[in-house]
Structures are given as C-alpha cells and as structure tokens.
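Before the break, one more example. Copy the sequence into your notebook; we will annotate it together after we see the structure.
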Amino acid sequence: MKAFVLAGGLGTRLKPALGDVPKPLAPVAGRPFVAHVLAWLAAQGVREAVMCAGHGADRLRAGLGERAGEVALQWSIEEQPLGTGGALAHAARFVEGPAVVVNGDTLARCGVWALERARWRRGALGAIALYRVADAASRGRVECDGPRVAGFVEKDPAHVGPAWVNGGVYAFAPRLWARFPRAADGAALPCSLEREVLPALAAEDQLAGLEVEGEFLDIGTPESWAEAGRRLAG
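Here is what the structure looks like once it is written out:
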C-alpha cells in the first residue's frame, strides 16, 4: 500500500514552543516527529508515501526531501487550507490502489495490513484503527457494533469511563476518493475527514473498525509533545 501522510496542520497550540516550525518537524527524541511515523511505515513494508502538506510546506519539504530512509516521498501541496478531507482530495492523482492514511502529528503503531484486511473482509470503503482509553471525557469517541463502526460522538465532559477513540490510521479503497467534494472544475474543496467523510461512511455501513493495542502518541499539546519525547527516547 501507498501511504498518505496528513501533514498540513497549523500546530496552533505548539506555536509558542515551535515558532514557525511545521508541527510534523517538531523535534522528538532526536529527529522530526514525522520521521518516526515514516520509519514505522517502512518497518511494515510501505515504500511510498505522499506528503499532504500545506502550512510550512516549503520547510517541511526542505527538511525531508524526496526520501526518508526506505520510503520514497511524493508531495501534494495545497495553496490554501483544505482540511484533512480536502487535502486527500487534492492528492487524488497519486492514488493507485488501496491506501493507508496517517496523521503526521500522531503515531499509532497498528498493523496497516491488518487494517486493510479488516476493510476488505467487510467489503467497506474504509477501516479505522481504534484505541481503548481509560477516560474519553476530553476526546471524541467511536461507537462500534462488533467490527462495524456505528458512529462518532464529539467530546463530552460528562462521559465518564473508558471508550474507543480514533487512532488516526485508516485503510481506504481507491473508490473512496470519489466521495470527497469538488468544485465544478474538479478542484478539491475544503472538507473534514473526521467530521464529514467518516461519519457519512459509518451511516452507510461502509466503515470497519479494528481494535488494536499498543501505544498512541500525539504532539498536539506541549504536554503530549513532551510525553512523546520521553516514550520514544526510552
């Protein structure tokens, strides 16, 4: 599978610490965080990745170049913010077959081939990696019916206890790209993968879920960035 790496986030909460450094280039355990993501993909046999970049794309490309270890990099650069779904639509020209989609600022070490098999077995357009957390009050959660994703629930401070949450790793069929909104001239339109595309797939029984174990790291806040550094250095 080819990987698509969503690396266009603004990193607003890390800006006081990073300045203008793109969030995927945040230093973690001696190298850019996204380099850890690409190394994890390489360890599973992924040899091509499309970097979906926007904010700070020039610095990101200068920092990574055309190859990261065993992974050849292709670049899809948006001229204006398109959101996660719009960024994927903008990169449609690189789609050749089933794809794994990951975030450039999270690391969820699941098996991407197991995720693709979960999608294929259900004949679904997509599959999502699910992680169990002890307290989901500060996060959106995913409702499941066995291997079927039934829906998504926004952050609910009143929710107490464990829940399944979105791990930010997806296996998508090529046909999924036809679902992203486009202008009359074919240009990608702004769209949220998490808020628009995935809930629509779940409502149509076109989204499988794979419950996985292992660590889930993100660098969305100064606290989680520091924690990722401690865990990846250990």
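DSSP finds seven helices and 14 strands in the chain. Residues 222-233 form the longest helix (12 residues). Try to locate both features in your own notes.
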